[in-house]
Specification:
Elements (H helix, E strand, L loop, with lengths): L13 H8 L2 E10 L6 E4 L7 E4 L5 E3 L9 E7 L4 E7 L15 E8 L2 E6 L7 E8 L3
Antiparallel strand pairs: 1-2, 1-3, 1-9, 3-4, 5-6, 6-7, 7-8, 8-9
């Protein structure tokens, strides 16, 4: 499921995603998964805070375990699946904005109210990470 610039759902296009992410810091507040039954959303403790920052320079800063190896991000078009995705890279991919070759990890992005959701693209059960915005500038 992918959400839009609207708080009530729909597909999030590239311009809206850029406006939502670039220059912002987010606090990880939840994660979701399916243990084989009903979908579970679990709160993430806020102490110590687990954050992710999408810099104006397209650098990624995070202390979230598993994501902390990625240093760069791009909002890219997945031309195969016809989706806008958030792609993470270990090394600077340059000016890559179309296609998703070279990425090491990627998400589809949605919003549910004030919560930004990063959905694992290849998770059949709909796994996600949820975030609350902390700031809009460096």
């Amino acid at each position: 499921m992918v959400f839009s610039c609207q708080d009530d759902g729909g597909e999030m296009d590239k311009e809206v995603l850029e406006h939502t992410l670039i220059g912002t810091t987010w606090l990880n507040t939840e994660y979701g998964y399916s243990p084989g039954g009903a979908y579970q959303a679990v709160d993430v403790p806020v102490i110590p805070p687990q954050t992710i920052r999408f810099g104006d320079d397209l650098r990624l800063q995070t202390n979230i375990e598993g994501l902390d190896r990625y240093r760069y991000y791009r909002i890219a078009d997945d031309t195969t699946r016809h989706q806008t995705v958030l792609a993470f890279y270990e090394e600077d991919p340059g000016d890559q904005t179309s296609g998703t070759s070279g990425f090491k990890h990627s998400y589809t992005v949605g919003r549910e109210g004030e919560i930004l959701k990063l959905y694992y693209r290849w998770c059949i059960e709909g796994c996600h990470l949820g975030f609350k915005r902390l700031s809009d500038s460096d």
